[in-house]
């Protein structure tokens, strides 16, 4: 049972070697840095965020924000933990809960998702770097470049033309398709996986770039997207292990949300004041929750994390159909997105199988 629930962290080779060959004669502080690296990785980002947060709240005496916005703080507990644990960003919880349950405008929910993830995901990213967890750097580089273009293009030219119902239904439909992608992935219990993309070529770089573009566009209206897009392509097409793809998606989302937050707040000057209040009551929570989630996620078995995503995405889809006022066109578009997503991810899976066979054939020939 334990093996079904938990699986050890995927650390890079240098840190694995440092742990296994720990010199008993090392100075005490070096031993602490190696043996208690996990705890230190959690504490450092939390202390930084809490220092500035407490300083601000004490100076301006803004504690009254919690009186009528406490529900956002509660939501942040679950959102930040999910963000760190899985390939779905905190926006996967924040956006549907805020728009469907709390009746908050999608633009406010999207901006809040970007802003809070730019805090929580960067905290989780620090923990991942500090822990020296295995990452897929080609994906980080090329998906980031594509995501930069995608999120700016989406914020400027796509998001303004979408209605609130379209954003709500579109979000849950896309994420439900992603759940199907995970289902396809987990059909193969003992499949072969890699820690980095084998035989990296310019063509594969272009695939990652295009993935980043679409992920950035999804993020532009939903506050999350580049993480699930990169995770899907890495695991289904390139057969990267989830233990590598998940922290990689966290790093990507941290970068993409920082870019999106800057563009909305500075370049567009379009973030509503209430959004900053929501951010203020959530920062001290996500500064701990997201790094903690990233550590929890590295120990849970992939089937457990997948089951969590299945539940979240299914509940979001059912809730959207029950709450949002839809019409025949909107339902048709939603069903079309889901069916297209199913077909697309199935095709990517088959293409991944073909690429794996080519790799194995080359290995035999060698």
Q: Which helices and strands, and how do they pair?
A:
Layout lengths: L1 H4 L7 H8 L7 H8 L1 H24 L4 H21 L5 H11 L4 H26 L5 H22 L5 H22 L16 H21 L3 H12 L4 H26 L5 H8 L2 H17 L2 H22 L4 H38 L1
Helix pairs in contact: 4-7, 4-14, 5-6, 5-14, 6-7, 6-9, 6-15, 7-10, 7-12, 7-13, 7-14, 8-10, 8-12, 9-11, 9-15, 9-16, 10-11, 11-12, 11-16
Question: What is this entry, summarized?
Answer:
With 366 residues, the chain is mostly helical.
As a percent range, the share of helical residues equals over 70%
User: What is the CA-CA span between the terminal residues?
Assistant: 40 Å
Largest pleated sheet: none
Count of helix runs: 16
Number of DSSP-assigned strands: 0
Shape: globular
- Show unreliable segments: 1-9
Backbone structural class: mainly alpha
Strand content: under 5%
Element order, helices and strands? HHHHHHHHHHHHHHHH
From the alpha carbons, calculate the radius of gyration and give it in angstroms.
Answer: 21 Å
The average pLDDT value, as a whole number, equals 87
Provide an overview of this structure.
The chain has 16 helices and no strands. The chain is mainly α. 79% of the residues lie in helices and 0% in strands. It has helices at residues 2-5, 13-20, 28-35, 37-60, 65-85, 91-101, 106-131, 137-158, 164-185, 202-222, 226-237, 242-267, 273-280, 283-299, 302-323, 328-365. The radius of gyration is 21 Å and the shape is globular. The model is unreliable at 1-9 (pLDDT under 50).
How would you describe this structure in keywords?
single chain; mainly alpha; 16 helices; disordered N terminus; 366 residues; 0% strand; globular
